Each structure stands twice: as C-alpha cells, then as structure tokens.
C-alpha cells in the first residue's frame, strides 16, 4: 500500500466515526439547507452558531485529495504543490454552498498612511478569520490559555481583537490538509468574492510572524478565477541577464477551479507576489470562496489577521432569497 493510500485509509476510518454524529442532511437543489437543530460550533465571539458539516460532505472530504499534487518549481525561488482538484468534484459545489450560507463575513475598512497622507481602504471582497497564534490556545470553557503553561493569558495580551476558534466545518478540512501537506496550521482565513469586481491586488504573505519559509494552503470553491503570480522585482545589475529575464517575464497564470488547492511553500512568499485580478464575464459573477490555512508564530500575527479580516464593521451573511450577502442584523438570521 502506498503512503498516500495509507493516509487516506487512516483518515477515512477517523472521520467515519465522527460523521455519524453530524446533522441529518438530504441533498437538494439548495445544498445549503441545514437544520439549525443539529450539532454546531459556537463561541462567545461568534455572532451565531455555525453548523457542523453535513454528513455526506464530511464523508467525501475524508477521501481527499482527489488527485496527486503537481510540483511546480521550474522557476527561480518558486515552490508550489498544485492539486487539481483536492476536494472531490462530486461534493465541491455542496461545500461551497454550505460555507457561503453558514459562515459570517465582514466588509473591512481601514486606514493607512502613505507619504504622510491618510487613506481609507475598502477591502474589495468579503472576509472572515478564525484561529490563534502558537503562543496561545483555546482551553476549557472558551478561555484562551498560554500554550507553555496552560494558564489563562493576561487580559491585555490581545488588546485589539477577540480571537475565536476554527469551527468544525473548517477544522476538518484543516486536519486533512495538514496530513497531505506535511505542515501544521493554526489560522484559517476565508475570502468571498461575490463577483468579478471583487479582487485582491499583488501581494505576498511574507510577514515576519509567519516565519522564514511559511507553508500556505489555498483552496478555491465556486467560480473559476485566474490566480496570477510573478517574481518580486530584482535590482538590475550591469550585464546580469537573469535579473532582466525575471523583471520582464510574464506572470504565471493558474486558472483555479472549484475544489483546487495550491500549496505555496519554501522561498515562494519571500520572493513571489500573487493576486486575484478583476474579471468580467464567464464564471466570475457566480461567486468564489477562498480558504487559506497558515501558521502564525507570535501574537502579532493574531492581531494582524483580525484587524484586516474582521475590523469594526457589521456582520454579513448570505441571504437565500436575495441571493447576495446582506447585513446580518437586517436579514433576520
């Protein structure tokens, strides 16, 4: 038996014992309909409980990945593992509909200073985040405790945010991802791109709180969107053809489909930028969810992620009748 087959068998046995306890679910034309009376994840920081994964989704996810990861390392400093797909094709749509309807999101606004001038930034997508850095963990009774001592953290350890645990519906995917990427994660960021106008500009996840060579697992669900990558500019040197080639190279384009996962690791974040550009037509207006798992090493990571993915705005939730995100307080959820 191959190592991957052995991993799949162990995961199937592990999750089969869990899935029997899930909320009852019958597939329908609206795969997001889930009984609120079933088991759910709750926490004082959640605006409302988040149902556990329906059993048929949980069972199929336990069979992930659906394909072997393809190594992409044919360019300088690039180290990717690309699954097409990771989430089984016969369940990725249901998982997308479930998460879009059951998670809460934010439309974050924040201010930055550039050249002494303060500018307000309106995040061009919906975001939410769960997790806690390596120095702390969630203990009994929803308390945050120190990882090393298991004692309650000081009341002022996280003065700018209220950390919350990863709900079961995302945590099961995290556990499976850890096995097949041979990495561990303590944060889950979720982006919802409502249409082709929602986007994220070129950036790299190279913050110091992630460590020198972070592994970031990025899942796509819903509409297919282009994922662009390009090497960071290299200072030109006289007679250096490598720098010229890198700076003039066309971006790498990966058309991420629903269920795909790309693992960025090694030197990638330190040397490459990535983006989801705006698009018109095609699938872009059908909505896309991006889930990323990552590992923050220190409390600065926790404060950063909650600041830029929760902020201080209102809570948004999917409205089935309107088929769009609406402010939670106003849609009667």
What can you tell me about this protein's structure?
The protein has eight helices and 19 strands. Strands 3-4-15-12-17-10-7 form a seven-stranded antiparallel sheet, with helices on both faces. A hairpin with a 7-residue loop joins strand 3 and strand 4. The relative contact order is 0.18.
Key features?
333 residues, four-stranded antiparallel β-sheet, alpha+beta, seven-stranded antiparallel β-sheet
What sequence of helices (H) and strands (E) makes up the elements? HEEHEEHEEEEEHEEEEHEEHEEHEEH
Beta-strand proportion: 25-35%
User: How many DSSP helices?
Assistant: 8
User: Care to count the β-strands?
Assistant: 19
Widest sheet, order of strands: 3-4-15-12-17-10-7
Could you tell me the mean pLDDT? 88
Which runs of at least 5 residues are low in confidence (pLDDT < 50)?
A: 12-32
Question: What is the gyration radius calculated from CA atoms?
Answer: 20 Å
* Main sheet summary: 7 strands, antiparallel
Tell me the span between the first and last alpha carbons. 48 Å
Classify the helix fraction into a percent range. 10-25%
Alpha-beta content class: alpha+beta
Shape: globular
What's the topology here?
Elements: H1 3-19, E1 40-41, E2 50-51, H2 55-61, E3 70-72, E4 80-83, H3 92-102, E5 109-114, E6 117-122, E7 126-131, E8 136-138, E9 144-146, H4 168-181, E10 187-193, E11 200-203, E12 216-222, E13 225-231, H5 241-248, E14 252-256, E15 261-264, H6 268-271, E16 272-276, E17 288-294, H7 299-309, E18 316-319, E19 324-327, H8 328-331
Antiparallel strand pairs: 1-2, 3-4, 4-15, 5-6, 7-10, 8-9, 10-17, 11-16, 12-15, 12-17, 13-14, 13-16, 18-19
């Amino acid at each position: 038996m191959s190592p991957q087959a052995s991993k799949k068998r162990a995961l199937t046995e592990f999750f089969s014992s869990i899935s029997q306890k899930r909320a009852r679910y019958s597939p329908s034309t609206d795969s997001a309909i889930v009984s609120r009376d079933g088991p759910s994840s709750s926490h004082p920081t959640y605006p409302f409980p988040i149902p556990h994964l329906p059993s048929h989704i949980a069972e199929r996810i336990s069979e992930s990945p659906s394909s072997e990861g393809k190594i992409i390392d044919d360019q300088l400093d690039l180290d990717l593992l690309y699954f097409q797909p990771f989430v089984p094709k016969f369940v990725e749509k249901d998982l997308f509909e479930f998460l879009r309807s059951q998670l809460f999101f934010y439309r974050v606004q924040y201010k930055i200073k550039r050249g002494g001038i303060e500018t307000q930034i309106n995040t061009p997508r919906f975001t939410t985040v769960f997790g806690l850095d390596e120095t702390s963990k969630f203990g009994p009774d929803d308390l945050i405790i120190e990882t090393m001592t298991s004692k309650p953290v000081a009341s002022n350890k996280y003065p700018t945010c209220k950390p919350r645990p990863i709900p079961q519906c995302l945590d099961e995917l995290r556990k499976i991802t850890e096995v097949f990427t041979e990495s561990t994660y303590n944060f889950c960021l979720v982006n919802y791109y409502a249409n082709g106008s929602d986007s994220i500009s070129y950036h790299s996840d190279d913050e110091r709180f992630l460590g020198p060579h972070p592994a970031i697992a990025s899942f796509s669900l819903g509409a297919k969107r282009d994922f662009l990558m390009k090497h960071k500019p290299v200072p030109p040197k006289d007679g250096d053809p490598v720098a010229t080639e890198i700076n003039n190279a066309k971006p790498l384009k990966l058309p991420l489909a629903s269920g795909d996962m790309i693992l960025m690791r090694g030197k990638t974040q330190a040397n490459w930028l990535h983006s989801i550009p705006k698009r018109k037509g095609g699938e872009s207006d059908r909505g896309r969810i991006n889930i990323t798992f990552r590992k923050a090493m220190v409390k600065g990571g926790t404060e950063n992620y909650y600041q830029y993915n929760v902020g201080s705005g209102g809570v948004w939730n999917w409205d089935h009748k309107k088929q769009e995100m609406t402010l939670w307080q106003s849609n009667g959820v």
